[in-house]
## 1
Amino acid sequence: MQQAVKVVGIGGSSRPGSTAERGLRVVLAEAARLGADVSLIAGADLVMPLYDPRAASPEPRARRMLAAIAGADGVVLASPAYHGTVPGLLKNALDHIEQLRDDERPYLTGRAVGCLAVGQGWQGAVTTLATLRDVVHALRGWPTPLGVALNSATAGFTASGECDDPHIQRQLNEVAAQVVEFGEAHRALRAAAPTARAAVPTSLTALQAR
Ligand SMILES: Cc1cc2nc3c(=O)[nH]c(=O)nc-3n(C[C@H](O)[C@H](O)[C@H](O)COP(=O)(O)O)c2cc1C
């Protein structure tokens, strides 16, 4: 039987229980229900020194996040909108992923990444979601087809943790399903690696030769 896919959720703000963190927890709960092995980096876990390319080794919080990402088949990012974009706290944590450049799967290579952005209005939520997806592309990850923008002026979370807007709740569940499905497919692809991967450059070369 195939081992459970690993999904790490990263995000929220330094305030434990922020709206973005609550949304992130919904996605992770659904991923766990679908059989994933999930972990969470949120709140104080995000507070890391400013990323310094000269630093020889990451400090403990960055190291924990990097180990979780390196071992993950899928990632979920959740960000509040701060002045229309991803707050420095979260962007700094993501900048530490530079340390994975020489990894076997560099940066976010081969991982589906579900993105959620929360603003106190639609404009900030949507621009922040687009930025998150751009960052994922830059880190060589695969943003899931569906991303979620949540307007905290019109939606929140119940005491049991669900989103009180059923449409957003369904979207969060769908993002979880897309991350898990891609994670399982990519893991199977890696297991069949020598043949499957070798076929890609060959067909690309054939296309370029036309
Ligand atoms: C410094 C700061 C800047 C913010 N800028 C925006 C913004 O540009 N657009 C927006 O919709 N909401 C903005 N907000 C509101 C947050 O996005 C919103 O309150 C948050 O996502 C909800 O999370 P919370 O539960 O931590 O408050 C800002 C909040 C802070 C603290």
## 2
Amino acid sequence: MENYDLYFAANKKLWNNKTAVHVASDFYNLAQFKAGATSLNPVELAEMPDVKGKSLLHLQCHFGMDTISFARMGATATGLDLSDAAIAAATELAASLEANASFVCANVYDANEHLSEKFDIVFTSYGTIGWLPDLNRWAAVIKERLKPGSIFYMVDFHPVVWMFDDNFSFIKYSYFNTGEPIVEQLSGTYADRQADLHDTEYGWNHSLSEIISALLNAGLTLEFFHEHLTSPYNCFNNTVEVTPGAFQIKGMEGKIPMLYSMKFIN
Ligand SMILES: C[S@@+](CC[C@H](N)C(=O)[O-])C[C@H]1O[C@@H](n2cnc3c(N)ncnc32)[C@H](O)[C@@H]1O
């Protein structure tokens, strides 16, 4: 099996550095969240089952806002993330809000070494598998953490979005996973473009067939798959807000998908 440790170490450093900037950013708006607002978006709120009384595992939870939002909705929530700075911030946030949420610092590939519990729901969202080279390993972890009859729900940016250069002016990257990492020098972050952050990031593009096949091959059953024309996050360059809180790429309005969402049953 190929050794990805160097890439993961670089990405961990990158996410550790991003965390303090994100916690303080208007983008994540922690003040509003602390006052009671959910960080979840209309897509997942409409498509997810009721989480009340359910155990929920949130993979790649960043500093825990969505995990805590699920806890506020009545779930017993567990967040997992590679970044120790993010997990420390999440743990502190949950404690300050007395939320029914706990957090684990681990690579998603190693989740089964850190968790033995099986969950009613596994959830992941917005900026996840692009950090993972091998989706079969990822899907096997999800399958292992699900109870029989339980669900995996995911909403993320559509692979078409990741084909373009930063300004959406030309197609720069393959739609498919070439097996080689996409190496980029980061300057700033989507949550604060002027932030003094300068790191190298390693990512991988994944086609829809690669994503869905990995989950089907792991033994899950697809219940629905949706594509969406707008993103709830204004996290790209050259965007236009087509309706309040709904973003598309300027010049491509109504032409490319911004998100996909799907639900699988174990
Ligand atoms: C874009 S954020 C997730 C977005 C989340 N919805 C949010 O905005 O709060 C991506 C997260 O994936 C985590 N991550 C990256 N690679 C990972 C890996 N191999 N295992 C676990 N977490 C990883 C990063 O530390 C980061 O917190």
